[in-house]
């Protein structure tokens, strides 16, 4: 039996983050180290999958249309951070135990347009050099299996 596990209060993938904290500092920050430890510990349960939700980062998901340079910078920063969190999750769970989610967690303070989040998340996976079948698993196949659709 597959059990789907999602943190309603902490949004594990990606976890809450302070966008003002530079990535270089975030890599050694206790919150990132806790994220890595928690992810590794949860992955030991073979029947646990994690949901990849819009981040709770206190700002809306950057829009798909790159209208202004500030929007482009926001999008690049979000993708850098998303990729930083995807790495440990993929290492711990593999692509077959990550399920894409389009709605923010109940604890999220930011807003998210599902289409913008979907595009940003797929681009982030693609930029990591992820195989198409693994991307398809995260964005469709795993949900089909977990939810028995």
UniProtKB/TrEMBL annotation:
SUPFAM superfamilies xref list: Metallo-dependent hydrolases
Tree of life domain: Eukaryota
InterPro entries: Metal_Hydrolase, Metallo-dep_Lactonases
Name of this protein: Amidohydrolase-related domain-containing protein
